[in-house]
Amino acid sequence: MAANIIEADAAAGDQWVNDRISELRAFDDSKAGVKGLVDAGITKVPRIFIQPPDDYYDKKSNPSNPRYEFPLIDLEGFSDDPNKCKEIIDSVRDASEAWGFFQVINHGIPDIVLEEMLDGVRRFYEQDTEVKKEWYTRDTTRRVVYNSNFDLYSAPSANWRDTIFCPMAPDLPKPDELPLVCRDIMIEFTKQVMKLGSFLFQLLSVALGLKRDHLEDMGCAEGLALLCHYYPMCPQPELTLGTSQHADGDFLTVLLNDQVSGLQVLHQNQWVDVPPVRGALIVNIGDLLQLVSNDRFFSSEHRVLANNVTPRISVACFFRSDLSASSKLYGPIEELLSEDNPPKYRATTVKDYVTYYNTKGLDGTSALLHYRI
């Protein structure tokens, strides 16, 4: 009797797995993404998107904690006032060590550029599905990769979002390699963010007690990839997530959000809302910067909630070295080590790290654990 029950359970489990794979393939083959589901008028979240109960219970029971004030750093006056310069560097250090996240204002990128970048992403996602299908692919060798969930077939649950991924540096794409509806602003936005990134890496170098150009000289700012996310309205936001809990697999992320809330950072084991600030950019430490700083700076876990009120748009700018320089090793910076502070990670190439990160997917565990000594 017991053997028959075990066999029946196993058969049911196999059937569930087969059904799930079929559902994932059907969703992927539609090439319409999550937005396509919403456009079709669905009223219930398909089960491939439903998060494990603990995830959405935690979301409902502890959506945020008002005791914490999310770091906001004003970069104005950095070059003119030595006192202001020190204040900014101290603030960057404190936020990078305690939060791994902060927002910056007066960062030098005009509001009109930020607004046009968000509008460009909106134009892409809100154009006809048949036009978008031309860009839909899981071939990561393509210059522009548009799909839903890079880890669709490996993650425990799919996320309620669609994404355009495009490497923009060190080799800027030719205009005809980018979608017409957003190509000009993608190029202009990249140029502006690369300048800001250079400045941020200088701040971070000094905050670590290193020479101003140390992180840039290491190649941390050589490469830049844009990830343009679209989070459609969700009929049952309590059952799924826009993006599940993760840390970023880069050196540094500069994030442009619209004014729709939803981003949360895990701080002192509490989920804290990142408040939308018009004209601000969100900056967060990536896994690779935590690795080379030997845990001085912290790559914080974060997530994005789904909502049933309005679509949400964000553009994440991932700074990392040129992936083609695959032989270059990154380990804890020698100047930060001592007898009392030995290396905590083994060295890795950026290409190997990113490959491991992407293969593992957003499964709720840190990719850094794989490299810890």
UniProtKB/TrEMBL annotation:
GO terms for molecular function: 2-oxoglutarate-dependent dioxygenase activity; L-ascorbic acid binding; metal ion binding. Belongs to the iron/ascorbate-dependent oxidoreductase family. GO terms for biological process: coumarin biosynthetic process; response to molecule of fungal origin. InterPro entries: DIOX_N, IPNS-like_FE2OG_OXY, IPNS-like_sf, Oxoglu/Fe-dep_dioxygenase_dom. This is 1-aminocyclopropane-1-carboxylate oxidase-like protein 1. It comes from Forsythia ovata. Keywords: Iron, Metal-binding, Oxidoreductase, Vitamin C. The keyword Signal does not apply. Residues 222-321 form the Fe2OG dioxygenase domain. The keyword ATP-binding does not apply.
